[in-house]
Specification:
With 148 residues, the chain is α+β, with helices and mostly antiparallel strands. The protein contains 2 helices and 9 strands, in the order ααβββββββββ. The longest helix is centred in the N-terminal third of the chain and has 22 residues, at 4-25. Residues 1-26 form the signal peptide.
């Protein structure tokens, strides 16, 4: 007869596997977006969209994982992490700090835009990981900053 702790661990493992397989079949939850906040007099209204040089080429953990953002609202994505359509148009959320990339019949992928990086914040593609893409250059066909 198996030891009691072995039976408990076996039961926990079976429950975890069942929950994991059920969760794997479910559609990913929609990403909550912040409600627009009205500007008050004297408050700084700068955000990523209007204050950062956000357009350009971003590279993920692997050099093959790239995301290029163009100033006209288009993107191109490639590499193993590219679970979205490889090219398309993106939208800004009301805060101006996040971009929304369409994901076909699934909720849009949400990326936080920071100084020199973009981070996928929703939906999570890997448990416990937020894919980060670091800025590596300007978008093709776009002049470098400071060029007349």
């Amino acid at each position: 007869m198996p030891h009691r702790s072995t039976r408990i661990l076996s039961g926990l493992l079976a429950c975890a596997l069942a929950a994991g397989s059920a969760a794997g079949c479910a559609a990913p939850p929609a990403c909550p977006l912040p409600a627009p906040v009205p500007s008050a007099p004297g408050l700084d209204s700068h955000n990523a969209r209007n204050a950062l040089d956000w357009d350009g080429l971003y590279v993920g953990a692997s050099p093959e994982d790239t995301l290029t953002l163009f100033p006209d609202g288009r993107y191109v994505m490639s590499g193993a992490r590219a679970v979205l359509p490889p090219a398309g148009a993106f939208d800004w959320d009301p805060s101006g700090s996040r971009i929304l990339l369409p994901a076909g019949d699934r909720p849009a992928a949400v990326f936080f835009v920071g100084e020199g990086f973009v981070r996928q914040i929703c939906p999570q593609t890997d448990p416990g990981a937020e894919p980060v893409y670091r800025k590596a250059g300007v978008a093709p066909g776009h002049p470098p900053p400071g060029t007349p």
